[in-house]
Specification:
It is built from four helices and six strands. The protein has 146 residues and is of the alpha/beta class. It has a five-stranded mixed beta barrel.
């Protein structure tokens, strides 16, 4: 193959790579609020299943879960996102840690929540930490119903 053929092949590969990069950069984000939940369960059920089985983490990883539970606390993170902690009866500390989607950063829906209130959230499951504080981690959460 001559130099011109190699140069043409490299230019075609570069253009293809640039096209893929452009597509990935502009790819629409998932609308978690309007997507159907893969699983619907209580905070206790989710916590207990993850605490009992290591393989359960892979089952829920990056899936959309609808979680019903009792509000144990509400706080705001360093990046101003609201985090709702749902009580899990078998958790010594922790529970279900649900970071709300950024659209709730100044929402009155969050300010009206009270500890002890029952709440249903739709979230993306992020993981389960079984260290000092055992907790289920979720993000991109939306309040479904109170």
């Amino acid at each position: 193959m001559n130099w011109k053929g190699i140069l043409v092949a490299l230019l075609i590969l570069a253009a293809l790579g640039a096209g893929i990069a452009y597509y990935m950069w502009n790819k629409p984000h998932t609308d978690y609020e309007n997507v159907e939940a893969d699983y619907s369960l209580t905070a206790n059920q989710l916590f207990d299943e993850l605490d009992a089985e290591e393989t359960a983490k892979a089952k829920y990883q990056d899936k959309i879960v609808e979680i019903n539970g009792e509000v144990e606390g509400i706080e705001q993170s360093a990046d101003s996102a609201y985090i709702i902690l749902l009580r899990a009866d078998n958790a010594l500390m922790g529970g279900v840690n649900a970071k709300l989607a950024s659209s709730y950063n100044s929402s009155t829906a969050v300010s009206n929540l009270k500890e002890g209130e029952m709440l249903t959230l739709k979230c993306r499951f992020q993981g389960f930490e079984k260290d000092l504080i055992t907790e289920v981690k979720c993000d991109n959460c939306f309040i479904v119903e109170k």
